[in-house]
Structure formats: C-alpha cells, structure tokens
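I would like you to sit down with the record closing this message with an eye to the fold:
=====
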Amino acid sequence: MTDLLHPSFRLLTGRRSFLRRSGGALLSASAIALLAGREARAASGAGASDAGILNTMLGSEYEAVAAYQVGAESGLLQKPVLDIAVGFQGQHKAHADFLAKTIKKLGGRPVEPKQAAAYKFPVESLKTQTDVLRFAADLEHGAATAYLGTVPRFSNRDLAKDIASILGDEAMHWAVLRQALNENPVPQAYIS
C-alpha cells in the first residue's frame, strides 16, 4: 500500500483542508446570489433544464455518500485510508448540499437520498482494503466523467463553472484513490 502521507498526498489533503475551512467549494457570483436568496440575479439564463441536470447529479452525490459509508463500515479500511475516505464522503455531502440548495433556488424539487441497499453496491465482493479502494476509484472516475459531460449543457455559465469545480474535486478523489492502489494517479491527459 502506498504511503498516503507521501508529499503529494499532504499537498492534496492540505488543499482540501483549506477548501473545507473556506466553505467546501469556490462559488461563482451566481451561486453566491442563489445562496443569498437573490433568485432573480441567479436565475438569469438558468432554467428548468439546469435544475433537472442538477437533480441527476444530486442523486449521484447521494450514491457516493452511501458508497463511502459502506466502505467505512466494512471494517476493511485502515488508517489513514479510512480518514481519507471519510473526508471524501464529507466533500460529497457538501456537493449534495450545494446541489439541493441550488435546485430549490431554481424552483425545482431535489431528489431524496436512498438507503444504501437501494444502490445495490457489490458489498459481497468487498473483501479487502484494495477491493474497497477499487470500488471507490471506479465510482469517482464515473463521477468525474459524468460531471464532464454535464458542464457544457448548462444554460447558466456561472453554474457551469461551479459544476466544473465539483468535477475537479471528483478527479482529485480518483487520482488519490489510484495512488493508494499503487497505480498511476493521472493515467492519461484527459478524463474519459
């Protein structure tokens, strides 16, 4: 197992710690307007289709929160891997909170989280820490790819920037998990 206290991990976790202390995400003027209750300013250019896209993403964030809970409760993760997994789960919760608030401000109704069993995770195949890391890495890769596909679909460009920021976080999660698996953390020049 790769030493997760390698300098590159300290750099990533230090940056993440800074982001958590500063609210968990860098928000655009539009997102700040949404959260401040200025829907008219924020809604310019954002429509029901944006809320629909966000709702799909919110469902995926709830799935990620549940997946990290399954991993944490498996008893297979050792420190500091467990700490990193719980930290990533916290970031997914922050993503979900942002998405749910934004959907409401756009006039939509956020989807509700499901019970972990509803996601049909392959818990029977999680027998080692490596299995849990592979499971999480595959989910993070899928999330990064999905976010990448949604960014150009937003009618509100500021909202697209906010979502691209979440995309960057998902890609960092994927890289850290690949490193923990002793794999090249950035295996290609583009997410695919």
Q: What stands out?
A: Confidence is low (pLDDT under 50) at residues 1-46. Residues 133 and 175 are 11 Å apart (CA to CA).
